[in-house]
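Lecture 7 notes: from sequence to structure.

We start with a single chain of 399 residues. Read the sequence below before looking at the structure.
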Amino acid sequence: MSDDKSELINNTDDNQELTNALTKIADLERQNRQLVRDNRMLSFMNDTSERLRKNNQREQEQQFIYNKMLLENCPNIIVLLNEQLRLVLFTNVSAAFLEKNCSPGFHLTDIFSKRLPSAWLEQIYDHCQQVIDKGLTFQYNEKLMIDNTVRYQHSSISPVLGADGDIKGVMLVINDNTELALLKDQAESAVDAKNRFLANMSHEIRTPMNAIKGLSELLLLSELTASQHSYASNIVKSSENLLQIINDILDFSKISANKLELTDSVYNPAIMMEDITKMLSIRAELKGLVMVTDIDPNLPAHLRGDDVHLRQIVTNLLSNAVKYTQKGMVKLKVSQEKLKNGINLHISVSDTGIGLKREDLPRLYEAFSRLDLATNRTVVGTGLGLAITQQLISAMGGT
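Now the structure, written as tokens:
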């Protein structure tokens, strides 16, 4: 009995050791599986990291190529400076403005060529410092003399901002507009030559035309047959039309050449308007039209301004109204808007003529533009009258 009990105890101890051994084996297997998973994850992460590294390297290489192409092919002078105003980057075309031996790291005071005007260099230094200190931006057009050659350019100096919005440096951009400026000068010279030609020719033609008109009017006072009187009347009428065209061309050429001179004199607006309407009422009556005036009786007796061009403006507007009205009336209304230091003079011309199409309104003040030619083909004109009128009013500060 004692032996059996001793054997049972030994068997129990063996079973416990076996259980412990099995438990350790199970733990080792779990640890092994965890190591395998960890190794796989590490391997995946390493592979991913390598791919990202290669992709990042390719992107950096591509970005380097892009930057190189930009620097080589950009037509503008671009200079980038850091917060200490030291050179960071510049386009290849900028080399003409920079010292031959300058490179990234050089200070602003040392990078620009000494061939450039000292006043321009001082201005650039001052503006770049203000960009860093105050965040200002500068843009201006300038004319430089470089190597005895005149250059026209547009300069822009602005801050370079970081992701946090802080100023990290300065960008200087210079556009060379020399060719464009020369073409502009040539075009202006051509326009000026054309305007001088028009002005001279207008004067030359106006002199004999006035003589023809004057002689024809004298001829009308002599004894003529009915047909001869008709011929002479047509000559006078044609002369007047041609003189009006010549005057329009002369006025337009003066305005285009900025040669318009405004006078300053005292005039009576009511008397001026009456004189104009009397002159044009004869033409209106010949067409069977009624000339109506509505002039504010409280207008000041004396105004100061360019009475010559004001008379031309009102005459032009009333002439147009008479010209394009076949029946009914033409009305001139003059009123005032009182201000603290004077008045605004309001002049309105209305008529019962053919009117305008709504789609033609934007072209109303275009030079050499005549609207609805099919209807107005018998009306003589250059298409300059309203264009000249608008420009005269603008020059006199009106609308």
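The mean pLDDT is 83. Keep this in mind for problem set 3.
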